[in-house]
Write a structure and sequence with these properties.
The chain has five helices and no strands. With 87 residues, it is mostly helical. The chain is globular.
Length: 87
């Protein structure tokens, strides 16, 4: 499937939850669109949603692939604050 088509479906969802956000973010990362993943992650946080563990893994991979070191540090801090680092 096409990421563009997937985003159109995602964008039209009436109730986007952590799973739908995380799936779209992971898809962007998997297909080499790290900056789109980072932008979507930012929007997810602005919507007030709490990322799942797997979403944090995807977004850290995105940071690494585009050398977004400061953003990666901020995300790592969020992981530590949420208590996920011990999982």
């Amino acid at each position: 499937g096409s990421l563009e088509e997937a985003f159109k479906v995602f964008d039209k969802l009436p109730n986007r939850d952590e799973v739908s956000w995380g799936t779209m973010i992971a898809g962007y990362v998997l297909h080499g669109h790290a900056m789109l993943a980072l932008d979507l992650f930012k929007k997810m946080l602005q919507e007030g949603l709490k990322p799942a563990k797997v979403t944090f893994l995807s977004i850290l991979k995105a940071c690494g692939s585009v050398a977004a070191i400061e953003q990666g540090r901020l995300i790592h801090d969020r992981i530590v604050q949420s208590g996920l680092e011990s999982d």
